Amino acid sequence: AQSVAQPEDQVNVAEGNPLTVKCTYSVSGNPYLFWYVQYPNRGLQFLLKYITGDNLVKGSYGFEAEFNKSQTSFHLKKPSALVSDSALYFCAVRDMERSGNTPLVFGKGTRLSVIA
Amino acid sequence: DAGVTQSPTHLIKTRGQQVTLRCSPKSGHDTVSWYQQALGQGPQFIFQYYEEEERQRGNFPDRFSGHQFPNYSSELNVNALLLGDSALYLCASSLNHGQARETQYFGPGTRLLVL
Predict the structure, then answer these.
(1) Given pLDDT bands bounded at 50, 70 and 90, which one contains residue B98?
(2) Given pLDDT bands bounded at 50, 70 and 90, which one contains residue B28?
C-alpha cells in the first residue's frame, strides 16, 4: 500500500530565510511524487512533481523539491521564504508500477508559517 | 482557460438528508476524481470517473455515489448524511492517457456541514 508521511505538523521560518517542508513516502514500486499548497478556504494548488530524471525538481513560485530514492524522501524547499508562502502544504504519491490514472495518496499536511 | 469549478461553495444539511455536489473539469480534461478532506487531514480519495463510468473507488460506503455527464462534468451524491460527513469535498480533473504521471488539478471545494 502507498503512504506518505509529513513528520512536522507546523514549520515556522523567518521571512528571507530558507525553508524546508519534509516528506517521506512508501510505495511498492517507483513513485510519482507531487506537492500541493492550500490557502485558507481554498482548494489544492499544484506546485511541482517528480516523474523521472533530474532529482531536483523546480516548480511554481520559486519552490523546488529534491527526490532522494535511498531515503525515500521528497522534501520541499525554497531559498528565501515570503510571508505570502504561509499556507498548508501537502505531499502526495502515486505508484509508478500501477498503470492508469490512479488516485493520489496524500500526507496529513504541514502548516508553514513565515514570520515577517 | 477556466480551471476546475465546483458548486455550491458551502452547504449546510441535517443528518439523514441527501446532498449533491457538482464539478466542471478543467478545459480539455476528461477524468474527474473526488476527494474528501476532513478538518486537519489530507484529502482522501472517494472515486474517479472516466467515460461516464466509475473506474476506481476508495474506501467509502455506498452512500457515496457519483455520475459523469457526456460533457465530462460530474456530480457527487451522498445519501443518509452523518455528522462525520462534514468536510471539504474536492474535485480534481486530469487527462486519462493511461499515464500515472498526469497531474490532477483541483477545484476550490465545497464545504459541507452536517448538523
Answers:
(1) low
(2) confident
Distance from chain centroid for Cα B94? 13
Task: Specify the pLDDT at position A100.
Answer: 60
Q: Which residues of A touch B56 (CB under 8 A)?
A: 100, 102-103
| Nearest C-alpha in A relative to B109 | A43
Cell of B113: 456541514
The residue type found at A10 is Q
Judge: A100–B109 Cβ closer than 8 Å, yes or no: no
